[in-house]
Amino acid sequence: MVWFPAFVATIVLMVAAVAIAAVIGLAGAWAASTVQPSGVNPRKLAEPTSTERLFASTSSRFCGWLGARCVGWLGARCVGWFLGWFYWALVVAVVTPLILHAAAWEATAGKFGIGMLTQTGARVTAGDTYGVFAGFVATAWLHGLHGGAMVGLATLLGISRLPRSIREQACLDAGPWRRWWRVLLPLAAPWWTVALLATAGLAATEMTVADLYGYRTIADEFYRFFAVEPTLPSILVTCFLPMVLAATIVTYVFVSRRRIAYANAFREPHVDVDVVVDRAGGMTRFVAVVVMVVIAGLLVLIPLLGLINNIGQVVVRSGDDVEVAWSLKMALSRLWEAPRLFAAEYRWTTIISVASSVASLAIAWPLAAWVRRRARAAVGVDAMMVALICVPGPIAGLMVVHLFQFEVPGFRFLYQQTILPTMIALSFRTLPITYWLVKAGYVGIETSTLELAAMETTPLKSFWFIERPLLMRSLVLAGVAAAVASSGDLPATLPVVPAGVTTVAVRLFGLLHSGARYQEAALSLWYLAALFIVTRIAIRKL
Q1: How far apart are CA 86 and CA 235, in angstroms?
Q2: Which DSSP string corresponds to 407-422?
Q3: Which of 494, 490, 480 is nearest to 531 (CA)?
Q4: How are beta strands 321-326 and 313-318 bridged, if at all?
Q5: How far apart are CA 478 and CA 136, in angstroms?
Q6: Is 302 in contact with 108 (CB distance < 8 Å)?
Q7: CA torsion sign, 149 to 152 to 155 to 156?
Q8: How many CA atoms lie within 13 A of 253 on its CB side?
Q9: Residues of 135-162 as b/e, b for ≥16 C-beta within 10 angstroms?
Q10: pLDDT tens across 429-469, in order?
Q11: 76: which residues sit within 8 A by CB, 6+ positions away?
Q12: 492 and 393 in contact (C-beta within 8 Å)?
């Protein structure tokens, strides 16, 4: 087969996904930072000077001051509440698998949604017109939304890790707009640049969304034509772009290490004091709130409303006329039946997710502890983790399949009767995620504390009784992140899932291809509810 059209289509998808992610992510990060600037004591938000002046112009100065304080307090509470939910929306959009994003947007703008803007419109009406680029808009939109949430979170994380002295100096030398775009954003470049590269890498390696909309990327072509008998040229072509991205990420991270180390060297302990910051004007803050509402709606609210609309749709036929109505009774009935109807899918998804999370944590935690004081080993392990996460899902699954074809006693039983091959295939994603989160937890521990523990006790006791309590939050976060990632990693799961085992992602993939709407919406809503609950608990506890 000819790889050039698929190669061009993949490049175009990567560029479009990165562009959409940059617009959504950077705009959301700017809006969140503008509504609540970094370094401002939250209690200071309860001092609305403009409102106080408005009330002070009335006949009673005391009543004006009291009203200003009440309005300011209420406004601060609303702003804080809204900011918390906006951050939560970004996290939910990141942890939501792409197949679930596709299911939600199919229910919103697909064959049975508001308009035929995605699957049917992309594959039928646009297929003859756009040829190889049929389905491009829907595929790029989903990758861009998912990547935009990653870019937004990475940007906010990078800005929050900047030293307090730099933020205060920027407040003195520049206004709010110039401070953000000319000072804070360039200093946070290592974080949001890696997020953009991760978005491009996901677009190059993920094949389920591309296959759903008929957009033929390299990973999708490999899955269609070489899933049974892969050839060396097909593997090299499929892995070329991901490996280029992996090399780019590794090089950029190592080049930016001096900048990150320089910033961390000036980090100061948090002190709860009032910091004077040049806050943005009222109109700018209003625009920022509007931007946050739009982005949160695109990421979570609109797709969620689409699923709710889809689950309650009822087709009423009257003669030759067919009308589509919405019934609350039918929606509740279908939602109530979903846990029983898809009990096996939920059960196997939970089992595979928990097992993959525990296995990845058991490997990543000792590995992160081992490279903590070995700089050269850390470089090699970091590069290996980047290479692992950039391996396309179909390639990872087929590598595991061929591994268990060797004539080794017990391999056939393990391949056919256990989920071990599935766990190994999922480890290409879960192991790097767990490793980096645990390693980040070690960065937050003072080196003197670990050195003192090593002097007074054995390495094993120090590892379990000293490091474990200090790393508990990072370990829990790493375990949750690995479980969520493994629950929706469909490209790696499809080739190796045992017979009779069906996860939620695999079932969603089949339902979307078959055109089901009620079952797909019910299955997605319970899965999305589980992600909401887990994410909310993680945010509040960690």
Answers
A1: 41
A2: --TTHHHHHHH-SHHH
A3: 480
A4: antiparallel
A5: 34
A6: yes
A7: negative
A8: 18
A9: bbbbbbbbbbbbbbbbbbbbbbebbeeb
A10: 899 989 988 888 887 777 777 777 667 777 777 777 777 78
A11: 42, 43, 45, 46
A12: yes
330 vs 323, 327, 528, CA distance in Å?
16, 5, 20
* Structure tokens that stand for 43 in this block: 């209690």
For residues 70 and 301, give the distance between their C-alpha atoms in angstroms, rounded to a whole number. 30
Residue 221 exposed, middle or buried by CB count within 10 Å (0-12, 13-18, 19+): buried
**What averages of pLDDT result for each successive group of 10 residues across the chain (542 residues)?**
73 90 92 67 40 44 48 54 81 87 83 57 43 73 92 87 70 70 82 86 84 80 67 70 71 58 44 44 78 90 86 73 77 88 89 92 90 81 84 82 84 86 89 88 74 72 78 86 86 82 86 75 87 76 58
What is the DSSP secondary-structure string of 190-210?
HHHHHHHHHHHHHHHH--HHH
Helix then strand count (H, E) for the chain reads: 30, 2
Distance, in Å, from the CA atom of 260 to the CA atom of 239, rounded to the nearest integer, reads 30
- DSSP at 280: P
DSSP single-letter state for residue 321: E
